[in-house]
């Protein structure tokens, strides 16, 4: 039986229209205030979903494991890595080969790091400057750590607000969920793109924004909560979920028996995938160690399996079977980055991440078009916005090339990204045709990606051990062709001629 | 990725697809819309979560179901965009007809209001959200500790987001400012009371 939906009363309609206009005003205000940074964050976040693949692409020569590493090889790599420093590392990481990162490696406090071969001999230093640059951009916007995390967290909170106000500001957003009119009026096309991608991606947008905001704002929150209620004990704030490090005792002691721990773990937990061994102050009496293992078909990033000096398993942290609050917090990272379902989920996250980047871009586009329609065009702002939208992928591609060609990396590479963006925004004012300027940026981005692939290909010709690196080359070339197609001047000129003829 | 029963996965996909098709049918019709059809569409989408959850575990299955549903939706609008015939040429924007952008004198009052709105939605709403979150944290002192931590971690950005909506809502500045400031004062007093 079909029942008709009643028409609203005139008064109700007027009230609703007022509410919608007021909500839309707020939506626009926040969107404009944070538009550029939000777009950069969304685009870098989309790429960050594939950060493991990018790391493999940057060092395609590193040997990869078909399965897990032998416990003896892991122990050897761990011993050899620790022998390379005179200091006691606060945290010592041994990354174990698994599906998305099939490489064995060690890292001293996340700074000096090496990969190891199948026998556990350390080989190449870990060196993926572009992936690290990308991580720095998305996590911190290249600002100092805590400040950057907080700024990114604030943007996450603003994005949550934008999603909520966007849904409230468009009462027909669900009814029009299938309308996609891209080939007519420009404003309608931008609005359709903005609203359709917003509505179908809404659950993803809210989850990603909320988890990102929670992760980003946790530092500020923990400081104030600890100061107010816990006598400044910030570790105590996180302790219910993440536990705490044991008391420091720097008296030398043998390193824990990693091989025995690996053997005991695989016997006791056959279905789990160990991804890391993490040691706190190894080689001291105060040391502690655990195996971080992924649980299949779970959203949690993993659970800690602690072991003693002899390699006997002593207990878990409880992410897998602890209270609901602990399980949810332990799932925030995987939900944010889409690392819970292998490549298929990563691809879906990539598509939805691209969608939210488009939503960020079209939101400001709509505002600019409306200004034009009202007879108040802002041509400089339009050019600057075009420079931001198309300049960001160009700057990202530029930073892909720099480490290989000029050995630029670290802080300098971060600076080059922002400098490139600043230059593009500055030179945009010299252009009068925004469409031509955008096409130029797209074309150059395509060429830059091709250059990055060719340089990488040329550097590692015949030494590639990573199938993912080969696949990514193909994906990059496909993206480059798409950019070149979108920036091709002849086609655009033909269109202009056709338009003029009309 | 763990092994999933193909039958259950296909069933989940089919249910989600059917739900989206029903919604497309009912929302695509001009004039009369059926509340029952809309409910049926959403109902099918909701039921599509069951096979996914049966195929794996609760949280993971639900996440996959959500991802599948959104992908189907994005697939539909991509298809709609691709099959759309070329539209009529858009009306020339007004800017094309006026040679130069209009220049108006600087409106200091409007500028000041914008700065105030920015401060209200950003730092002031943030401080208010922080005090309210701290109040919540204190009030949950006897709750299960991980639930307490989860509540404050997610409440802080959520409250900030809601306050930023109020701060930018198109209503008198006094009202907007009042809501944000009162929230902050309430949170601070509540926190002070619990410390």
Oligomer: heterodimer
Low-confidence stretches of chain B: 92-100
Number of domains of chain B: 2
Structural class of chain B: mainly alpha
Series of secondary-structure elements of chain A, N-terminal to C-terminal: HHHEEEEHHHHHEEEEHHHHHHH
Main beta sheet of chain A: 8 strands, antiparallel
Strand content of chain A: 5-15%
Q: Report the average pLDDT across residues of chain A.
A: 90
DSSP E strands of chain A, number: 8
Strand content of chain B: under 5%
Distinct helical segment count of chain A:
15
Helix content of chain B: over 70%
- The termini of chain B sit apart by 47 Å
Please report the distance between the alpha carbons of the first and last residues of chain A: 50 Å
The low-confidence runs of chain A, each spanning 5 or more residues with pLDDT under 50, are 1-8, 496-502
Main beta sheet of chain B: strand number and arrangement? Answer: none
Compute the CA-based radius of gyration of chain B.
25 Å
- Strand-pairing-aware structural class of chain A: alpha+beta
Helix percentage range of chain A: 55-70%
Largest interface: A-B, 96 and 85 residues
SSE topology string of chain B: HHHHHHHH
């Amino acid at each position: 039986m079909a029942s008709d939906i009643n028409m609203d009363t005139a008064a109700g309609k007027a009230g609703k229209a007022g509410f919608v206009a007021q909500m839309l005003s707020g939506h626009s205000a926040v969107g404009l205030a944070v538009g550029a940074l939000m777009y950069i964050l969304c685009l870098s976040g989309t790429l960050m979903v594939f950060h493991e693949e990018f790391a493999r692409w940057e060092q395609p020569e590193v040997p990869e494991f078909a399965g897990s590493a032998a416990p003896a090889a892991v122990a050897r790599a761990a011993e050899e890595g620790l022998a390379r420093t005179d200091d006691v590392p606060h945290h010592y990481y041994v990354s174990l080969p698994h599906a998305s990162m099939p490489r064995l490696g060690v890292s001293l406090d996340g700074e000096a790091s090496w990969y190891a071969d199948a026998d556990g001999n350390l080989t190449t230093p870990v060196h993926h400057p572009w992936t690290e640059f990308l991580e720095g951009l998305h996590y911190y916007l290249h600002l100092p750590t805590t400040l950057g995390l907080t700024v990114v967290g604030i943007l996450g909170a603003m994005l949550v607000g934008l999603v909520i106000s966007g849904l409230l500001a468009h009462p027909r957003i669900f009814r029009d969920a299938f309308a996609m009119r891209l080939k007519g009026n420009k404003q309608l096309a931008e609005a359709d793109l903005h609203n359709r991608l917003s509505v179908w991606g809404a659950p993803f947008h809210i989850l990603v924004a909320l988890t990102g905001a929670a992760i980003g704002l946790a530092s500020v929150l923990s400081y104030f909560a600890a100061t107010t209620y816990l006598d400044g004990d910030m570790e105590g704030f996180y302790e219910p979920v993440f536990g705490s490090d044991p008391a420091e005792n720097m008296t030398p002691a043998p390193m824990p028996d990693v091989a025995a721990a690996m053997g005991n773990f695989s016997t006791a937990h056959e279905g789990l995938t160990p991804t890391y061994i993490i040691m706190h102050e190894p080689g001291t009496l105060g040391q502690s160690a655990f195996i971080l293992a992924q649980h299949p078909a779970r959203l949690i990033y993993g659970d800690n399996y602690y072991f003693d000096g002899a390699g006997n398993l002593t207990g878990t942290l409880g992410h897998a079977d602890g209270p609901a609050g602990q399980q949810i917090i332990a799932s925030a990272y995987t939900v944010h980055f889409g690392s819970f379902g292998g490549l298929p989920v990563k691809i879906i996250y990539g598509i939805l991440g691209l969608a939210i980047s488009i939503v960020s871009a079209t939101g400001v586009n709509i505002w600019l078009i409306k200004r034009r329609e009202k007879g108040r065009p802002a041509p400089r702002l339009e050019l600057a916005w075009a420079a931001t939208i198309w300049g960001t992928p160009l700057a990202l591609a530029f930073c892909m090339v720099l480490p290989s060609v000029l050995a630029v990396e670290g802080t300098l590479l971060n600076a080059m990204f922002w400098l490139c963006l600043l230059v593009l925004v500055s030179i945009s004012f010299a252009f009068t045709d925004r469409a031509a300027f955008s096409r130029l940026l797209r074309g150059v981005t395509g060429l830059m990606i091709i250059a990055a692939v060719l340089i990488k290909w040329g550097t590692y010709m015949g030494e590639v051990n990573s199938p993912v690196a080969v696949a990514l080359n193909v994906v990059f070339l496909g993206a480059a062709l798409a950019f070149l197609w979108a920036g091709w001047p002849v086609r655009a000129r033909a269109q202009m001629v056709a338009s003029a003829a009309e | 990725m763990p092994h999933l029963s193909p039958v259950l996965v296909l069933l989940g996909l089919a249910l989600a697809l059917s739900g989206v098709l029903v919604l497309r049918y009912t929302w695509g019709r001009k004039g009369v819309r059926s509340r029952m059809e809309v409910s049926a569409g959403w109902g099918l989408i909701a039921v599509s979560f069951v096979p996914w959850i049966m195929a794996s575990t609760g949280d993971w299955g639900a996440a996959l179901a959500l991802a599948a549903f959104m992908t189907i939706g994005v697939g539909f609008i991509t298809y709609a965009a691709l099959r759309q015939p070329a539209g009529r040429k858009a009306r020339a924007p007004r800017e094309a007809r006026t040679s130069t952008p209009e220049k108006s004198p600087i409106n200091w009052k409007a500028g000041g209001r914008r700065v105030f709105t920015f401060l209200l939605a950003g730092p002031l709403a943030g401080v208010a959200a922080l005090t309210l979150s701290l109040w919540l944290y204190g009030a949950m002192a006897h709750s299960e500790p991980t639930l307490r931590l989860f509540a404050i971690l997610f409440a802080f950005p959520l409250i900030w987001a809601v306050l930023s909506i109020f701060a930018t809502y198109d209503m008198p500045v006094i009202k907007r400012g009042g809501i944000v400031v009162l929230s902050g004062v309430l949170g601070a007093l509540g926190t002070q009371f619990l410390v």
